[in-house]
Give the backbone structure.
Amino acid sequence: MQFFSSKFKLGILGGGQLGKMLLYETRKWDIHTKVMDASPEAPCKISCNEFVQASLMDFDAVYNFGKDVDVLTIEIENVNVDALEKLENEGVKVYPPTKALRTIQNKATQKLFYTDHNIPTASFTRFAYTSEIEDSISNGGLQLPFVWKSAQFGYDGQGVKIVRTPEDLKDLPNVECIAEQLVDFKNELAVIVARNTVGEVNTYPVVEMEFHPEANQVEYVICPARIEDEVAQKAQQVALQVSKHMNHIGLLAVELFQTQEDEILVNEVAPRPHNSGHYSIEASYTNQFEQHIRAILGLPLGKTDSKVAGIMVNLVGSEGHTGNVIYENIETILKMDGVTPHIYGKKQTRPFRKMGHVTIVDENMARAREVAQKVKETINVVSN
Amino acid sequence: MQFFSSKFKLGILGGGQLGKMLLYETRKWDIHTKVMDASPEAPCKISCNEFVQASLMDFDAVYNFGKDVDVLTIEIENVNVDALEKLENEGVKVYPPTKALRTIQNKATQKLFYTDHNIPTASFTRFAYTSEIEDSISNGGLQLPFVWKSAQFGYDGQGVKIVRTPEDLKDLPNVECIAEQLVDFKNELAVIVARNTVGEVNTYPVVEMEFHPEANQVEYVICPARIEDEVAQKAQQVALQVSKHMNHIGLLAVELFQTQEDEILVNEVAPRPHNSGHYSIEASYTNQFEQHIRAILGLPLGKTDSKVAGIMVNLVGSEGHTGNVIYENIETILKMDGVTPHIYGKKQTRPFRKMGHVTIVDENMARAREVAQKVKETINVVSN
């Protein structure tokens, strides 16, 4: 197929920041794109060839959107999979395949998948309703503390809560959920696996999430992770196992725990470009967005090595600020070497909303880490 | 001024490939853009916020286009400068400044500028009409061979001819022109200088154009140039002199000759992102398009060093092919490490038309050069 000519059409469900960064690459290769998003202010609205405003959960909207595209992909998992399945059955190439997407969409199913395929993951119990958990605690079937996760549609920390006392269960929605063992981890890691339509597979280097010592919030995504080679290899092997058994196509971002005993446990996966791969735009030979396009179009995968050390800092809305966004001190961070801000284009900020990210690259990791800290201490996402 | 919010508007005259690559960066920073181009199929038509279809040489069109933008820039020199001057007088920030643009637009004026400022350049004679040249040859005022250049609107080798015999003058247009001494050069080099609105200046490394041994056509743009440090420093010094005396703002691409005696002579300049800087997208800490935006918005300039060695190969239409474009064997070059094609999105190819470029990066220059040769031998821009 000639992707690099006008006969081909790529559909993307979701028009947020991930879709926007995918569009840098479709523009680079002049690939015709059609994007759907519920918001009239979606960052993708420009840069795509066609834009459709509709809900990603609406069966008819998704089905009608996908009928005239050659390849259909997603930038977010929360889409109507029934419509995707119908399209897939009618010959549209849907990547990730709907089977993998269904497994991932439901966290209980996802966890069962790991167990079924002997993929190491924290032990867990599935509950049809949150209300069943209290009984399980009373009769000794479940020990406190644990991590409660809603089975459906958790995204960016939504739908996740650490439960230390029965009190903590009170405000949780009464839905299908899992109670997962709290992992005492040394590091939180991630590996992005790329797999194309003809089965070629490649992994990116292991990245490390560095947490704020007090706030328990990811502050930096660091590539490569500052861990032993042996641990890194194990992490990549586990990620490859997940990819293989899921038969996924495109990118699969595998989030992992490195335990105190250097075990590797799968936390969860996302079948698309991922926040943990944003560093690749500036640091890698092939950035994750180009790689996703290569994979779903059946093109040869690109080299996943890094040119330089890369660190990513998320730009999230500051607490106490809701309204028209201002990126305070952005000109100060532009003075620092190897610093590239990405502004997603959302007009309104609110506390903790992802508004952009900043990549810091340097041939020396220690220096990159120093600059990253300065960036973090300098820039503020506020409202006027 | 808050560039990173919705109050600011950047105007770009010209919607071709350079504009398109500028738009990657305005999208990255969510800067509101308005683009004008005569073609309804301009590559910039998507990715900008507003598109106006009109001739860049039309006074009224340019003036009306520029009235509501905060900063106005160009991706091509052939624009109506009178309209720009009127806008400049009315308070629109026009970069490059119209004074520099006028100097550059006319090659005779440009050459006189070098002479006036003691900037080394090949000796030349200005003629009001090509027809005056024959007299000058007959009376011994001008020696053959020389390079004939039209004073106005030469672009991409148009309006330039090597004159070896009086016969060669026959088909040339009877216009204002210069006859320039033919330089016996060892290397053709280029230096991109960035200068922002507050006078901060930075230069990119010297690049080298490698020519095909027989066809006398640039095959590769190589960064860094494989020349002695001393020569590179001299080239950068000369480029800085041109920038300083022109008081330009934005990017200035300075094309240079390195003579057999290692003298550096200025060939010509372009006050905008330039083909010789395309390698920077993949190889540099700050690519030339982001740097141009930093410069014209008065932001701090970014680091111009390279992360890795970079080589650029232009994708031009093959001889004998006119029509709907096909990029033959593009999938083969995608298998090679560190290879990134850029497809400009022109639907029709014709012989020698610039349709895209390919960047090859590697930590090792010799290896990059080998891959570049394979790329060149593999890909073909043809029609179906």
Notes: The longest strand of chain A covers residues 185-195. The mean pLDDT of chain A is 94.
